[in-house]
Specification:
Number of helices: 3
Largest sheet: 4 strands, antiparallel
Low-confidence stretches: 13-19
Strand order of the largest sheet: 1-2-3-4
Strand content: 15-25%
Oligomer: single chain
Number of strands: 4
Structural class: alpha+beta
Number of domains: 2
């Protein structure tokens, strides 16, 4: 690498003289390499550390009981089927089978039609299925 020549201001008689100055970075490749190395180092030092999850899993799962299962099912059903329709299907039936909560609405006696149904995983609250019977 050539030594850097610092120009004397009095020697600069015109703009064309600036082209003769020796700069420490003789090519754009060198400058780009230095920039990328600095950027990589910054991201490596201050980037997110995804090696440790920041989540707590309740021992009874995220849906520990039928009340929580009903709340989740109603929250999912309401925008789909409408709050009045979902309210008419109370009381809801719930049962737990193989780690999955099954929640279903009920029709009043002598009423024909279908009810909203949902399947929700107990461990992580994943909505497995949402449907409406006929």
């Amino acid at each position: 690498m050539r030594p850097v020549v610092q120009p004397n201001i009095s020697e600069l008689s015109s703009i064309t003289c600036l082209a003769e100055i020796q700069y420490p970075f003789q090519s754009m490749k060198t400058l780009a390499l230095i920039f990328c190395t600095g950027l990589f180092a910054t991201v490596s030092l201050f980037g997110n550390d995804d090696t440790k999850p920041h989540s707590v899993t309740p021992k009874d799962g995220f849906v520990p009981n039928e009340q929580v299962a009903i709340q989740l099912a109603v929250a999912v059903w309401t925008p789909i089927y409408g709050s009045e329709n979902i309210e008419r299907q109370k009381p809801y039936k719930t049962w737990l089978e193989n780690g999955v909560w099954h929640v279903a609405g009920q029709l009043p006696k002598n009423m024909v039609g279908g009810v909203a149904m949902a399947e929700i995983q107990k461990s992580d609250a994943k909505i497995i299925r949402v449907s409406h019977s006929k």
